[in-house]
């Protein structure tokens, strides 16, 4: 199991539930102590190019020293209804793409949820058209993986529009929708490159693994049965108590590995 974690989950909240951590270097050390393989780098609306080390111009990949790689760059700064604007997309995604290339990161994750939700057909069409133009024109070498909190038609429309488009399968978000994990994983297994590990209630919030309605055993068994050996698993679980992040994640890792088998 190629298990990693979303940046910020090993640090106290930095002004928000999911924000770029103050000490990103320490998180690499903590991830190593926990036996994790990768960290998914985070870019949010609140972290400027001056405050996020990704844009410093210096190499941030520390895999040569610690064995911890950057699995993906998560562009949370794109969660906006303006995501269908070509100018907004270029201005907010282009710097991330350039930094990804400089740091040897080949995948960028784009969340299509909340304000960037693509369930509406006309909104989805506008996004897909503009995203394709951006990807083909400027960055055909980059893999764009979409975390889509919506149903089958929306996922298919996005993924089938470009051979470089992949799916980040968020277990908690899909549980909240009340879908069949077996059906969705079987349908999209060839496109899934990352699984965000999260437990949620139906139409509800994120809770600790095992406290919600996510059937991780079915998810893991289905992926293994279908040959998803190269999929990255990224911990994005409930934060727990502030200041106790390391112990919280350590407990969650134990639960996850036991369920994975």
Please explain how this structure is put together.
The chain has a single domain, classed as TIM Barrel, CATH 3.20.20.150. The chain contains 9 helices and 10 strands. It has helices at 24-33, 63-66, 86-102, 121-138, 152-159, 171-176, 181-188, 216-225, 245-260; strands at residues 2-6, 38-43, 69-75, 107-112, 143-148, 165-170, 192-197, 199-200, 206-207, 232-235. The strands form 2 sheets. An 8-stranded parallel beta barrel has the order 1-2-3-4-5-6-7-10. A two-stranded antiparallel sheet has the order 8-9. Helix 7 packs parallel to helix 8 (216-225). The N and C termini lie close together (9 Å).
Broad CATH class: Alpha Beta
- Fold-level CATH name: TIM Barrel
Question: Beta-strand percentage?
Answer: 15-25%
What is the radius of gyration computed over CA atoms, rounded to a whole number of angstroms?
17 Å
**CATH homology superfamily name:** Divalent-metal-dependent TIM barrel enzymes
Tally the structural domains: 1
Helix percentage: 25-40%
Q: How can the largest sheet be summarized?
A: 8 strands, parallel, barrel
Query: How many strand elements?
Result: 10
Count the DSSP helices.
Answer: 9
Shape: globular
Overall average pLDDT: 94
- Given the helix and strand composition, which structural class is it? alpha/beta
Low-confidence stretches: none
| CATH architect. name | Alpha-Beta Barrel
How far apart are the first and last residues' alpha carbons, in Å?
A: 9 Å
> Order of strands in the sheet with the most strands?
1-2-3-4-5-6-7-10
User: Helix and strand succession?
Assistant: EHEHEHEHEHEHHEEEHEH
């Amino acid at each position: 199991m190629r298990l990693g974690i979303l940046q910020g989950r090993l640090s106290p909240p930095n002004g928000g539930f999911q924000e770029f951590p103050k000490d990103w270097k320490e998180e690499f050390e903590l991830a190593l102590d926990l036996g994790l393989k990768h960290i998914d780098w985070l870019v949010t609306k609140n972290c400027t190019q001056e405050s996020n080390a990704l844009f410093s111009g210096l190499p941030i990949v520390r895999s040569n020293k610690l064995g911890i790689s950057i699995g993906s760059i998560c562009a949370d700064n794109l969660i906006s209804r303006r995501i269908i604007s070509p100018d907004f997309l270029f201005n907010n995604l282009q710097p991330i793409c350039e930094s990804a290339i400089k740091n040897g990161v080949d995948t960028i994750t784009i969340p299509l949820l909340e304000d960037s939700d693509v369930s509406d057909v006309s909104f989805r069409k506008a996004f897909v058209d503009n995203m394709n133009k951006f990807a083909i024109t400027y960055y055909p070498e980059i893999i764009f993986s979409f975390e889509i909190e919506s149903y089958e038609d929306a996922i298919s429309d996005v993924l089938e529009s470009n051979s470089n488009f992949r799916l980040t399968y968020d277990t908690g978000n899909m549980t909240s929708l009340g879908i069949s994990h077996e059906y969705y994983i079987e349908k999209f297994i060839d496109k899934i490159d990352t699984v965000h590990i999260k437990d949620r209630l139906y139409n509800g919030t994120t809770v600790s693994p095992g406290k919600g309605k996510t059937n991780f055993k079915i998810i893991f068994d289905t992926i293994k049965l279908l040959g998803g050996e190269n999929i990255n698993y990224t911990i994005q679980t409930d934060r727990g108590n502030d200041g106790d992040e390391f112990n919280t994640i350590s407990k969650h890792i134990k639960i996850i590995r036991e369920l994975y088998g």
